[in-house]
Amino acid sequence: MDNEATAVINNGDNTDTHLQPNISTDNGSRRSSRIGSARSGRSKAASVREATAIDGSNERKPSANGVTSPKPDITTNGDRQHSAVVRSKPASPAVPIFDTPSGEYDDDNINQEDGHVKSEIDSILEYIHKLVTLPGLEENMWTDEIHGRIRDYLNDPDHRIMCFYIDRVLGLSVEYGVPTNPFSHLVFFMKNQSIRIFDKEQFIHEVQYGNFGGKHFSSLLRLMSGLYAPLFFGNKMWPDSIKNDFASQLHRFLATLTDIRWRMEGITKLYIPKEGLDIPVEQAAKDKELVQRLESAMVHWCRQLKDVSHSQDASIVDENSGPLEEIEFWKARSQDLLGISQQLDQQSIKQITQILKIAKSSYLSQFLKLADQLQANTKRADNNLSFLLALKDPCHELADAKPNEIARILPKMISLIRVIWINSEFYNRPEMLTALFRKLSNEVIRRCTAAVDLDKIFDGNIISSQKTLNECIECCQQWQEIYNNVCKLLFSQFFGFK
């Protein structure tokens, strides 16, 4: 059956609807081309002349494959020839047309939504706007340059990562990788593969996103331990050799990352592998590869416990700290040791210990020995803190005192130190008392140093500066005298010397 030629039909409502020809095949099926947009600004008669040949001939000849194609009609107007089917440049389309070539992104691809026309790229931009939540982000920071970089990311398969952050100078910034500039918060997008993104649905399925807060190690640890580690450890498709090697490296990385993340806050955190805890201990002990990975975790625990034990005298080595720093040191140490003790009481660590006991691991005895030492160190830290807290109020008073006020505070503090020396179970060693008096001397020097104003001296304020310097010298002499008198008194009481 013959096809109708391209025609313009007047609907009687001043709208000319332009229809493309239908092409018939030899099996009687039709293949329709898409409907074009309404043409405006042209007369109906001109449209009819374009659509209908002057000579009335519009015959079609079948092709070699049996497909009948329309024969274009040619009319002569002077020395010019015009095709019967003339496609003029369309005005604004009433019906959007999607015709995106493979591998290219067309920003003119649009769909009709909620009564107004919106491009697919705008849909993705709006979606990204909602996902990017950064402290200090304002709407006016979404500039054309930012939108352009987003478009480049969607259109370029080589750009797999896109990161948003707030720069102190430039405001909202976009990088196709991890930023080298310092930032407090970051939102990232990552394509699953090197592809172009054409619409919102594809974006949702092919792009992952997330954010890092101000504590980057904390965010990374939470992401690895909460999302990726369970996926890797639960994978059943890998060969055993590859899985065992990868699991060992991942455990080592998570143990180091856990240690670094919590050490920044002065806390010792033991990394506990989640692998092998869901099976009976007898069955787990028979898995040699699993036992080796659990032994690696225990070796890391032993190293952490040794570091904690060696740091118990760190306050003695620090020669510039004062008595308040000594109190804070033992307070933090007491809390840290208590936290480790609570971790050692967790069922997961007990289960790992039981697995290695059944497997007759050589690392277990050292770990149990260090765990016992930890309990003794915890008791010592609690005892030291309880006695040192008696010095807290006088130390605060000393920290706010002027040089001419220090002498009246020192006798009280020396008396309290004497009480600690006599009654404390652990703070009665000579090196501990020497360190405590050294810290008290450091605080006296601090107060005198803070009172001396070099700017006043060089500005010529001689009288007031000289008075302050004399007060500082007198303060140090009084401190020496008080200390020597107390020493003589103690020697006379304990050894009968005068």
CA gyration radius, whole angstroms: 41 Å
What shape does the CA trace take? flat
The computed structural class is alpha+beta
The strand count comes to 14
Distance between the termini: 134 Å
Beta content comes to: 5-15%
Low-pLDDT residue intervals, each spanning 5 or more residues? 1-117
Order of neighbouring strands in the sheet with most strands: 12-11-13-14
Helix content: 40-55%
**Largest sheet: number of strands, sense, barrel closure:** 4 strands, antiparallel
Q: How confident is the prediction overall: mean pLDDT?
A: 78
The structural domain count equals 4
Structural write-up:
This protein is α+β, with helices and mostly antiparallel strands. The chain folds into 4 domains: 7-83, no CATH class; 115-214, no CATH class; 240-390, no CATH class; 400-498. The protein contains 17 helices and 14 strands. Strands 12-11-13-14 form a 4-stranded antiparallel beta sheet, sandwiched between helices. The protein has a two-stranded antiparallel sheet with strand order 1-2. Strand 3 and strand 4 form a beta hairpin. The N and C termini lie far apart (134 Å).
Features:
alpha+beta, flat, two-stranded antiparallel ribbon, 498 residues, 4-stranded antiparallel beta sheet
